[in-house]
């Protein structure tokens, strides 16, 4: 009898909580339409342009200071809408209506053999005020065919481990390949070894509630 009464009381409460949770999640989250509008606002657009210009300048600095020759730039632009949820029985909501972030990847060739190219990159990193974070003291710390520091990751073709083609991510706000017709396989066919530089992801705009 007690179990029956408990079930009679509990199930309606759980059902009501489920309804409240669904309503909270729906009303507390930024809609897809609103998130897109905010990501396309003047504030986000200006921050996007500034961030992309800065990331491009870093990619070009490698080409200016080392034997690397820039062959392909890939820009991924994303936004994440603010979501509401529940932490146990406590309602939780994101502090931001939308967050925008960007990733830039650069693909290079080199007229020099890979080992010599890497040495020249490390030499460039040793220069005063260099924007290249790789130096000779970290060259032996990473894996073969990889340099990583300060969020910069430089890798290159190795036997059995080639640099992959860029893939357009699902639900990207913007995806740019420059030049559009370039491909990693074409770069490899014409210039042999392909080098790829992944720069840190940049959170360039957050619009609070």
What is the radius of gyration computed over CA atoms, rounded to a whole number of angstroms? 24 Å
How much of the residues is beta strand, in percent? 25-35%
Overall pLDDT metric? 84
Percentage of residues assigned to helices: 25-40%
Structural class call reads: alpha+beta
Given as residue ranges, the uncertain stretches (5+ residues, pLDDT < 50) are 13-17, 19-28
What's the tally of helices? Answer: 5
Number-wise, the strands total: 9
Element string (H = helix, E = strand): HHHEEEEHEEEHEE
Distance N terminus to C terminus? 49 Å
State the shape. Answer: elongated
Largest sheet: 7 strands, antiparallel
Sum this structure up briefly.
The chain contains five helices and nine strands, in the order αααββββαβββαββ. The chain has 209 residues and is an alpha+beta fold.
Please give a structural write-up.
The protein is α+β, with helices and mostly antiparallel strands. Helices cover 38% and strands 29% of the residues. The protein has five helices and nine strands. The longest helix has 27 residues, at 2-28. The chain is elongated and about 50 Å long. Mean pLDDT is 84; it is low at 13-17 and 19-28.
Name its key features.
about 210 residues; alpha+beta; 7-stranded antiparallel beta sheet; two-stranded antiparallel sheet; 9 strands; about 40% helix
What's the layout of helices and strands?
Blueprint: H1 2-28, H2 32-39, H3 42-65, E1 69-81, E2 84-87, E3 90-93, E4 96-109, H4 114-126, E5 146-149, E6 152-156, E7 174-178, H5 184-191, E8 195-198, E9 202-208
Antiparallel strand pairs: 1-4, 1-7, 2-3, 4-8, 4-9, 5-6, 6-8
């Amino acid at each position: 009898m007690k179990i029956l009464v408990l079930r009679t009381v509990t199930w309606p409460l759980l059902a009501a909580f489920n309804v409240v949770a669904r309503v909270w999640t729906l009303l507390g989250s930024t809609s897809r339409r609103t998130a897109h509008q905010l990501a396309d606002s003047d504030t986000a657009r200006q921050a996007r342009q500034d961030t992309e210009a800065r990331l491009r300048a870093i990619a070009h600095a490698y080409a200016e200071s080392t034997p690397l020759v820039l062959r392909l730039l890939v820009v991924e632009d994303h936004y994440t809408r603010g979501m509401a949820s529940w932490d146990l029985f406590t309602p939780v909501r994101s502090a931001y209506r939308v967050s925008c972030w960007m990733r830039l990847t650069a693909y290079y060739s080199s007229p020099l053999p890979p080992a010599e190219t890497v040495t020249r990159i490390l030499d460039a990193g040793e220069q005063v005020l260099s924007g290249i974070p790789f130096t000779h003291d970290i060259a032996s710390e990473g894996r073969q065919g990889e340099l990583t520091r300060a969020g910069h990751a430089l890798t290159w073709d190795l036997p059995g481990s080639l640099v992959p083609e860029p893939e357009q991510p699902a639900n990207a706000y913007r995806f740019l390949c420059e030049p559009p017709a370039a491909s990693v396989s074409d770069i490899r066919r014409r210039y042999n070894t392909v080098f790829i530089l992944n720069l840190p992801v940049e959170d360039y705009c957050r619009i609070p509630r």
